[in-house]
Design brief:
Layout: H1 19-27, H2 33-40, H3 44-51, H4 59-69, H5 95-108
Helix pairs in contact: 1-5, 2-3
């Protein structure tokens, strides 16, 4: 059996959006993906992969997302209810945490 290539995702992409994707996607409408990446100490493409469901954050990244943006660690494993995709989402649970994180980030600047 061949060994996985360096580009093979470490976790399976989700067939549907997760709550974490939706919340991070909503946050990306307020901050740039580059700003989110800098705050999480990852690259911009990594954040983009999280938002679009190609990858899920690992444990350490989930801890950072919880601390910085109040996105629950389990939100990345729960399917979002009643969503139409990251950009067209009607999902609002957790948005209060994202709003607070944006305000906190802007006040720290």
């Amino acid at each position: 059996m061949p060994s996985p290539s360096p580009t093979t995702p470490t976790s399976s992409p989700s067939p549907m959006n997760t709550e974490g994707q939706i919340i991070l996607g909503q946050l990306a409408l307020k901050l740039t993906v580059s700003q989110i990446a800098r705050l999480c100490r990852v690259s911009q493409p990594v954040v983009s992969r999280w938002i679009h469901g190609r990858r899920r954050p690992n444990y350490q990244n989930r801890k950072t997302l919880l601390a910085r943006f109040n996105i629950g660690m389990e939100a990345w494993d729960r399917p979002a209810q009643g969503t139409q995709g990251v950009q067209g989402s009607q999902h609002t649970e957790g948005a209060e945490g994202a709003e607070g994180a944006v305000a906190k980030t802007r006040s720290a600047a």
